[in-house]
Write a structure and sequence with these properties.
Blueprint: H1 31-51, H2 54-58, H3 80-86, H4 91-106, H5 117-138, H6 142-160, E1 168-173, E2 188-192, E3 198-199, E4 206-207, H7 210-225
Antiparallel strand pairs: 1-2, 3-4
Helix pairs in contact: 1-5, 1-6, 4-5, 4-6
This protein binds zinc ion (2 copies).
The site of one zinc ion has 8 residues, from helix 1.
Length: 230
C-alpha cells in the first residue's frame, strides 16, 4: 500500500482489503464484493430449497444391507450438518441476524416474523439484496457480513455436494422405551430419500418430519449414554 508523507492511507474495501477506486470513494466495500455478495444472496433460496429435502440429509449414509461394524454405537441419522443448516438456528436464523443488524443501523424495527425457515430464507435474502447498496456504502460492519454470507453460501454448497443419494438407509436404533419394561426397543430404523417419515417396524414409534429427526437423534444419544442401546 502506498502512503503519502502524512501517512494517509488510501481507503480499502472492508471485505477484501483491496484499495478502492476513485469512483468508489466514500464506499466501505468495493463493487466486486457487492456484486459477488448479491449473487450469493440471490442463489441462497434455491440452495436452501435443495438442502431442505430428505434426500440431501441422506447423501453418503450407509445403505441398508451394508455390513455393520457390530459396534454398539448406532450409525447416526446422516448429514446432521445439513439438518443444522436447514432447521431453526441455521441459514434462516443467520440471515435474520444480519437483517436485524442492518435494520438497527438504519433505525428500523427488527425483522418481522417470516414463518418457517423455508418461508423466511427468500424474504431475508430479498431484504438483504435490496439494502446491500446502502450497506456497502454506509454500514460499518459490512465486511463481516459479506464474510458471513460467503460462509453461508459455501456451507450450503458443500452440504449439497457429495455422493449420489442412496435409497433406503440405516439411521440407527429405535430409542423408544417400552412402557412396561422401560427397556429400549433397539430395532434398526431406516429412512428413505423419498420421505422424511420414519417409523419403527417393531414398536411403531413414528418421527413424522425433519424436525423430529433432531428429537430422534437426541433420544438415540441419550440411549447410548445410559447404556440402554442394544
Ligand atoms: Zn472488496
Ligand atoms: Zn421401536
Amino acid at each position: 500500500m502506498n502512503h503519502t508523507a502524512d501517512d494517509y492511507s488510501w481507503p480499502a474495501c472492508m471485505a477484501c482489503g483491496h484499495e478502492l477506486w476513485v469512483s468508489e470513494a466514500g464506499r466501505l466495500a468495493c463493487r466486486p464484493c457487492e456484486d459477488k455478495t448479491a449473487k450469493r444472496l440471490a442463489e441462497l433460496p434455491a440452495l436452501f430449497r435443495q438442502l431442505n429435502t430428505t434426500a440431501s440429509l441422506m447423501r453418503g449414509a450407509r445403505k441398508v444391507g451394508a455390513a455393520t461394524s457390530g459396534s454398539r454405537v448406532p450409525p447416526i441419522p446422516p448429514r446432521l450438518g445439513v439438518l443444522s443448516l436447514a432447521a431453526a438456528g441455521g441459514v434462516a436464523t443467520r440471515l435474520r441476524d444480519i437483517e436485524d443488524a442492518w435494520r438497527a443501523a438504519l433505525g428500523w424495527t427488527v425483522a418481522p416474523w417470516r414463518g418457517s425457515p423455508a418461508e423466511a430464507v427468500p424474504e431475508h435474502t430479498k431484504f438483504l439484496i435490496n439494502n446491500l447498496p446502502w450497506a456497502c456504502d454506509a454500514y460499518d460492519s459490512i465486511g463481516q457480513d459479506i464474510d458471513e454470507i460467503r460462509r453461508l453460501h459455501s456451507e450450503c454448497t458443500a452440504a449439497l455436494t457429495g455422493e449420489r443419494r442412496p435409497g433406503r438407509v440405516n439411521i440407527g436404533y429405535c430409542p423408544a422405551a417400552d412402557e412396561e419394561t422401560g427397556g429400549v426397543c433397539g430395532k434398526q430404523l431406516t429412512a428413505s430419500a423419498g420421505s422424511p417419515r420414519i417409523q419403527c417396524g417393531n414398536c411403531g414409534t413414528e418421527w413424522p418430519d425433519m424436525a423430529a429427526w433432531r428429537d430422534l437423534r437426541r433420544a438415540q444419544e441419550a440411549a447410548i449414554e445410559t447404556g440402554a442401546a442394544v
